């Protein structure tokens, strides 16, 4: 099957940041065609957003409920196939549930749901539906992150002993939510974001990156959670000590009040044979460190890399690939998986390499465990899912 998958979008209308990112990611490799959407809870804004995107007026809907109702009435060869949900956290579960039960595949922004209970329910719904869900943990899409994962999976670093992962931002260094900043307003509002601020927004990325690259799972944690900016309702800073299922220990910090910082996600992992380091500010580089010989600098686009890194690389060596390409890798791998299934073929391991429902549940468990630990007098708590 070589045709494009028919894509619909919920959220992401005028004034929304992440909707445009999703649409660019979907278009880069030509696997999707945007055919419909409910782009805002405001019906007129949804209509205007759809017109700007050049959609047929009868495929721009006033609500996500209307989208599912009308799309299911269309002939199968016209009906939307994949639903991309790019709303605030409190509007993830219900449309995702309706999409899966309605027979549509889902691409969903992280964190997956508003609560861990919703995440558990969505996992059951996905398993019953026979459809697939992709969770957009963008940083797993970088070629050199995938190379790091393969090096560890192949045992090149030996048994993993120590993990350091960090995500510093500075954009909420002041009370931006009081100045009308739309992104700040919902991300710091418990009614829309959930029980966590920084830990839900970016801490989940750091947590996911640590588990994705190492192939390990967190079993215990000890969190120090802070709300630094006066008047803010949710956490904007935190540090977490981690214990993994192989006995390794780790340190995670995520903050949105680090003045002057942008989005320099960074991870360092050390095993019994060597270590590695990757950071988004130099995303084309993976540094591998050895105790008995010089460090190696691995670069995106080079012929010596694994099939997973090559599969997710578009340009020759020396040409930077960044955030949009990493985001697009998730969309492409998801599309390749769906197309293989539609053709009654087995998807390749490379195309199956995208975050899904399991990562979504663990991400929500991270949020709830971290906040519970931060509020508890206990030093360590078990990581419960």
TrEMBL record:
Residues 146-277 form the GFO/IDH/MocA-like oxidoreductase domain. It comes from the Bacteria. It comes from Paradesertivirga mongoliensis. This is Gfo/Idh/MocA family protein. Pfam families: GFO_IDH_MocA, GFO_IDH_MocA_C3. Coiled coil: none annotated. Residues 6-135 form the Gfo/Idh/MocA-like oxidoreductase N-terminal domain. Signal peptide: none annotated.
């Amino acid at each position: 099957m070589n045709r494009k998958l028919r894509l619909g979008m919920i959220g992401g209308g005028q004034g929304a940041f992440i909707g445009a990112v999703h649409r660019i990611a979907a278009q880069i490799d030509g696997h999707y065609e945007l055919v419909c959407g409910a782009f805002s809870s405001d019906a007129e804004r949804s209509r205007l957003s759809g017109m700007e995107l050049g959609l047929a007026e009868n495929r721009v809907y006033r609500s996500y409920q209307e989208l599912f109702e009308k799309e299911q009435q269309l002939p199968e060869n016209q009906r939307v196939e994949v639903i991309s949900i790019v709303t605030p956290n409190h509007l993830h579960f219900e449309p995702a549930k309706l999409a899966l039960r309605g027979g549509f595949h889902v691409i969903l922004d992280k964190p997956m749901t508003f609560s861990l209970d919703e995440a558990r329910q969505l996992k059951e719904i996905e398993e019953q539906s026979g459809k697939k869900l992709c969770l957009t943990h963008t940083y797993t899409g970088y070629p050199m992150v995938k190379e790091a994962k393969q090096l560890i999976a192949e045992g090149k670093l030996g048994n993993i002993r120590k993990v350091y992962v960090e995500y510093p931002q500075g954009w909420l260094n002041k009370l931006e939510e009081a100045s009308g900043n739309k992104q700040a307003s919902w991300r710091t509002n418990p009614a829309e974001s959930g029980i966590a601020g920084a830990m839900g927004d970016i801490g989940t990325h750091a947590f996911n990156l640590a588990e994705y690259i190492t192939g390990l799972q967190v079993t215990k944690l000890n969190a120090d959670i802070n709300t630094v900016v006066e008047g803010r309702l949710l956490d904007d800073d935190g540090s977490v000590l981690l214990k993994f299922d192989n006995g390794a220990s780790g340190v995670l910090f995520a903050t949105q009040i680090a003045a002057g910082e942008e989005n320099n996600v960074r991870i360092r992992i050390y095993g019994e044979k060597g270590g590695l380091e990757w950071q988004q500010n130099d995303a084309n580089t993976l540094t591998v460190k050895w105790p008995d010989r010089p460090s190696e600098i691995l670069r995106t686009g080079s012929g010596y890399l694994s099939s997973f890194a090559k599969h997710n690389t578009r340009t020759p060596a020396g040409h930077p690939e960044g955030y949009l390409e990493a985001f697009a890798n998730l969309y492409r791998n998801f599309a390749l998986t769906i197309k293989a299934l539609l053709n009654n073929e087995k998807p390749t391991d490379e195309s199956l390499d995208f975050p899904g429902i399991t990562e979504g549940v663990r991400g929500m468990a991270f949020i709830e465990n971290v906040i519970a630990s931060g509020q508890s007098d206990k030093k360590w708590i078990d990581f419960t899912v």
